[in-house]
């Protein structure tokens, strides 16, 4: 899901190295669900503003291994909450209930 502004970053040798490092650190395992990790995710998302800031972009502490599904969810929920926030509608989070079902819950701020 590389967007235009981050394309050259994702092609850089520095990124390839950090990515390898994080994959090895997290044992190629998704930190959310334990599946085989396929992607490395920035906890603080990359933006046009921070793409030049290596303390965010190349900081292993800001990186986690995720499988495709979990990675997709990370970004989707973020976008979703961002839209709601802009409209002044309460944010929601997804939690597991006592039966292990994923339920939507209003965030208590
Ligand atoms: Zn996962
Ligand atoms: Zn990501």
What do you see in this structure?
The protein is α+β, with helices and mostly antiparallel strands. The chain has one domain (4-106). Helix content is 38%, strand content 17%. It has helices at residues 7-10, 13-25, 54-57, 68-87; strands spanning 39-42, 63-66, 92-96, 102-106. The chain has a two-stranded antiparallel sheet. Strand 3 and strand 4 (102-106) form a beta hairpin. The radius of gyration is 16 Å and the shape is globular.
Compose a concise summary of this entry:
The protein is α+β, with helices and mostly antiparallel strands. It has helices at 7-10, 13-25, 54-57, 68-87; strands at residues 39-42, 63-66, 92-96, 102-106. The strands form 2 sheets. A two-stranded antiparallel ribbon has the order 1-2. A two-stranded antiparallel sheet has the order 3-4.
SS-based class: alpha+beta
- Span from first to last CA? 31 Å
Report the bound ligands by name, code or SMILES.
Answer: zinc ion
Low-confidence stretches: none
Largest sheet: 2 strands, antiparallel
Number of domains: 1
Q: Strand share of the residues?
A: 15-25%
Strand order of the largest sheet: 1-2
Q: Taking Cα atoms only, what radius of gyration do you get, to the nearest Å?
A: 16 Å
Helix count from the secondary structure assignment: 4
Provide the residue-averaged pLDDT.
Answer: 85
Number of strands: 4
